[in-house]
Specification:
Serine Threonine Protein Phosphatase 5, Tetratricopeptide repeat, 6 helices, 65% helix
Length: 119
């Protein structure tokens, strides 16, 4: 399979399926995040984010990105933002009203870069 990265960890695949399954039920989604997503290793979380972007599941990818941002190991990374913005543009989800938009992502990036410069 040229050009495709395969996710080999079963737990990461399970998380992708669960996030997609519970995307419309906020209560179940939060419970799933606490019980499964937060347990993933750093590289598995990034792999889940990349796979959701590849599948154009941008709202779920944005949620995963926000989970990653809360990790103590996270530092603002222009490449993670770039990939998410490209996925948002491809899916034409610029303004869907659910907090899943480029403007909020760009604003958050600028704010995080500004605060890290002045901290």
């Amino acid at each position: 399979m040229e050009g495709k990265k395969l996710i080999r960890e079963r737990e990461a695949l399970f998380v992708i399926q669960g996030l997609k399954r519970f995307r419309h039920d906020e209560e179940k989604l939060e419970k799933f995040v606490k019980s499964h997503v937060l347990r993933l290793l750093k590289m598995d979380k990034i792999a889940v984010l990349n796979e959701l972007e590849r599948q154009e599941e941008v709202c779920i990818a944005l949620k995963m990105f926000r989970i990653i941002q809360k990790e103590e190991w996270y530092t603002p990374d222009v490449y993670l933002y770039k990939d998410l913005i490209i996925a948002l543009a491809r899916a034409k989800k610029k303004n869907d009203g659910g907090g899943c938009g480029m403007e909020s992502l760009l604003h958050h990036y600028v704010v995080s870069k500004t605060t890290s410069v002045y901290s």
